[in-house]
Amino acid sequence: MNKKFDLLIIGGGAAGFFTAINTAVKNPGFKIAIIEKNREVLQKVKVSGGGRCNVTHSCFEVKKLLENYPRGNFFLQEPFQNFNPRHTISWFRERGVKIKTEQDGRMFPDTDSSQTIIDCFIAEVKRLKIEVITQKRVEKFSQQNDLWRLDMQDNESLFARNLAITSGSDKRIWDSLAELNLDIVPPVPSLFTFNIPQHPVTALPGISFPHMAVQLQDSTLQSEGPGLITHWGLSGPAILKLSAKAAIELNQRDYKFKIKVNWLGKISKDKVMEELRAMINSFPKKNVNAHPPFELTQRFWKFICDQAEIKEFQKFAETGKKHIAVLAGLLTEMEFEVNGKSTFKEEFVTAGGIDLEQVDNKSFASKKHTGLYFAGEVLNIDAVTGGFNFQAAWTGGWHIAQSVV
Ligand SMILES: Cc1cc2nc3c(=O)[nH]c(=O)nc-3n(C[C@H](O)[C@H](O)[C@H](O)COP(=O)(O)OP(=O)(O)OC[C@H]3O[C@@H](n4cnc5c(N)ncnc54)[C@H](O)[C@@H]3O)c2cc1C
To answer: Per-residue pLDDT tens for 200-253?
Structure first.
């Protein structure tokens, strides 16, 4: 069976569906098909956000939004002026999906179910008569005259005037793109937690910190945000953010590196010493380890006191300058040797992909090949957690739809 299309899309994920639907809306009568290698489409959408799908983030200022993209922030500057979280919310609202905001800015369908997003996409592809071809892996694609030819695993070929690659982190597709002389930035993992094997702090799993700051040693990279102690090391937004910012560097260091943690975020060592001196004056007769400063938990403060060799019943009045400096140091610049990484709630993202130098950010089209477009994770764009990765997929898909002719 040989078929000719106006637009073929490789990959039935977030970027693929958004590209297809928006292109069909913009170009009624276009013959469009999405080709998906798996039996089910939108599998990552299904499991995303713990099954709730964190569709975007309530970050409406483009400059601020861009800060969440360690790779792609320059490229996305202009596209985000045209399609950003505000547009995402309206897009879904127009299709009957209400989006709600959580306290930390993450946005979800108000049903708290990713199935709502999937149902919306499936209804749209039916309405717009977009073909969805599943269980067909695209093995190869090439340009023949003014058509793109796609060869599938069962020797079937499809042809199209336009080809959108929305295949996520698929090595086979990256290899095909390299054959078209497109540069691929080697993929490395992003968004992971840090392993600190055998460190005594791992005896305190579950303790969280509202504002934590992490600094990568021998580097200027740092991050801030909530933090969490786990059985194997450190996690939470501050750690995930640093893992994304430093994804390439940490890969080069084979995930063996040192970090400095300020459990109190921006509060300086001097400020902590000042506070401890004030506590000595206020409660001289009280036990140090029973009175945590800065609303730290009792368990964590006891751990810090043990590390500082504060005796079990040591009173504030018995605490000298040296102890104050050690306690303040442990709270604001505790050092850890990280050895290895772990996946965060199975939510992995890949840094790397098609080098953005070769992509026009007005159309998400290849600068080298006519009729070739890219959106989503196949590009060298990735973000921290919070709905930003999907936002990049929506923005890319929307721009393709405006440019495909
Ligand atoms: C568990 C998990 C939870 C996540 N949660 C969130 C979240 O809540 N919010 C957020 O913003 N981001 C989240 N992410 C990241 C987000 O899912 C991705 O950034 C996003 O799915 C990328 O979309 P995509 O369409 O580019 O790629 P994908 O969703 O990976 O889709 C690519 C599709 O292409 C298909 N494909 C690949 N190669 C071929 C081929 N040769 N032939 C045919 N088909 C092919 C694949 O099977 C796949 O269906 C999460 C990721 C994971 C793993």
So the answer is: 999 999 999 999 999 999 999 999 999 999 999 999 999 999 999 999 999 999
CATH number at residue 122: 3.50.50.60
pLDDT in tens, 253-265: 999 999 999 999 9
- CB count in 10 Å sphere of residue 269: 17
Do 102 and 19 share a domain, yes or no?
yes
pLDDT at 82: 98
CA of 170 to the centre of ligand 1 (A): 10
Task: For residue range 85-142, list pLDDT tens digits in order.
Answer: 999 999 999 999 999 999 999 999 999 999 999 999 999 999 999 999 999 999 999 9
- At which residue do the structure tokens 């063996």 appear? 256
Nearest residue (CA) to ligand 1, atom 3: 48
Instruction: Look up the pTM and report it.
Output: 0.91
306 and 251 part of one domain: yes
Ligand 1 lined by 384 (C-beta under 6 Å):
no
Minimal-distance CA residue to ligand 1 atom 30: 168
Distance from the Cα of residue 8 to its chain's centroid: 27
Q: Cα–Cα distance between 389 and 405 in angstroms, integer?
A: 27
Instruction: List the structure tokens of 374.
Output: 């890219």
The whole-angstrom separation of Cα 319 and Cα 310 is 8
Find the largest Cα–Cα distance for the chain. Answer: 87
Domain that holds residue 203: 192-343
Which pLDDT score is estimated for 4?
94
Q: In whole angstroms, what is the distance from residue 66 CA to residue 75 CA?
A: 10
Query: Which residue owns the Cα nearest ligand 1 atom 13?
Result: 48
- Number of structural domains (the chain) is 2
Question: For residues 53 and 106, what is the distance between their CA atoms, to the nearest angstrom?
Answer: 10
Tell me which of 343, 359, 374 is where a domain ends.
343
Instruction: Say what the alpha-carbon torsion angle 171, 172, 173, 179 is, to the nearest 10 degrees.
Output: 110
